[in-house]
TrEMBL record:
The chain crosses the membrane at residues 33-49. The keyword Membrane applies. It comes from Paracoccus broussonetiae. This is CTP synthetase. Keywords: Membrane, Transmembrane, Transmembrane helix.
């Protein structure tokens, strides 16, 4: 992947994270709940990518 594409991808991820945090705080979702949801989503993604032998 060329460097400009990688940097644009990193920028898009950072902007999406910022938009998510802003939208959640605007609605009134506690940051603790948002963090727990993100942690659970990361755990599900990790477990889903495991290869079963």
């Amino acid at each position: 992947m060329p460097l400009p594409h990688f940097l644009i991808l990193v920028l898009a991820v950072i902007l999406a994270a910022g938009l998510t945090i802003w939208a959640a705080s605007a609605v009134g979702v506690p940051m603790l709940a948002l963090g727990l949801v993100a942690l659970m989503a990361a755990a599900v993604a990790h477990l889903a990518m495991r290869e079963h032998h």
